Amino acid sequence: MLEKVKETTAYIRSKVTVEPEVGIILGTGLGGLTKDIKNQEVLDYGDIPNFPVSTVEGHHGRLIFGDLGGKKVVAMQGRFHFYEGYDMKEVTFPVRVMKYLGVKNLFVSNASGGVNPDFEIGDLMIINDHINLLPNPLIGPNDKEFGPRFPDMSQPYDYKLIALAQDIAKKNGINTQIGCYVGTTGPTFETPKEYQYFRIIGGDTVGMSTVPEVIVARQMGLPVFAISIITDLGVPGKIVEITHEEVQKVGKEAERKMTLIMEEMLQNL
Ligand code: HPA
Within the chain, which residues score under 70 in pLDDT? Predict the structure, then answer.
């Protein structure tokens, strides 16, 4: 896999002049932040050697390079999910490539279902821990060049980046939650008892992404900031039928606040 990562990195370097300092992965309905990226250079996933191609509605499938918040960034508009049929190495491949392109921090966003009874639909939750219920992306032969066989996970989400995000949110009058994201395979949303189970084991929210990317980033020593938009509630009495379209709609409404936080964070890095 190391060879593939290096080949892809070399290809991207041959096509793009931007040398990104920060990598950004945008979740369901949250690709709009890319509109603010200036001096864009864009690559379609389909044109990048070894890149899987995104298939889900609402996921565009482009790498966007350029300037955001005074920093050089690379943003993934559309990510790869295990439930689409990609294996965990494919799901996390772009994170390895971002690291080899030189990024020093990784920002991640997603849509999720709140299981904390204090949460409301449309809330932003800064992720400070996760529980991984997907296959671990590091299973299999480990290339030492990527990082340790048994990576530490004591600080999966960077405390300083969390504090910075909280400061910025407060200054701008944006209310944020903080908590633990449970990563599951999907593609089914949860049954009422499954939501209850995720609450009991320590989750505040549940979704189908992010955790694999964070594990791989942490193995390579990349500090991570992640934020989740609560698009539905898995809370007794508040559980209603949900659809992918509903998830996308709520995402759009909260996106503006999330974008503001991320852009100001970039300015302050
Ligand atoms: N469960 C799992 N994934 C999700 C949800 C949910 O309720 N909402 C958005 N993504």
Answer: 28-29, 53-60
Handedness of CA 10, 268, 248, 132 (dihedral sign): positive
How far, in Å, from the CA of 178 to the mean position of ligand 1?
17
How many Å lie between the centroid of ligand 1 and the Cα of residue 22? 27
d(CA 134, CA 149) in angstroms, rounded, equals 18
Q: How far is CA 2 from CA 46, 50, 95, 163, in A?
A: 20, 12, 12, 34
Q: Which CATH architecture has domain 2-268?
A: 3-Layer(aba) Sandwich (3.40)
CA of 132 from ligand 1 middle (Å) equals 15
Ligand 1 and 156: CB distance under 6 A: no
Domain boundaries, the chain: 2-268
Calpha distance 74→63 (Å, rounded): 7
Exposed, middle or buried by CB within 10 Å (0-12, 13-18, 19+), for 255?
buried
- pLDDT value of position 242: 81
3-state SS, residue 38: strand
Instruction: With H, G, I as helix, E, B as strand and everything else as coil, classify residue 260.
Output: helix
- For residues 193 and 190, what is the distance between their CA atoms, to the nearest angstrom? 8
Length of the chain: 269
- pTM assigned to the model: 0.94
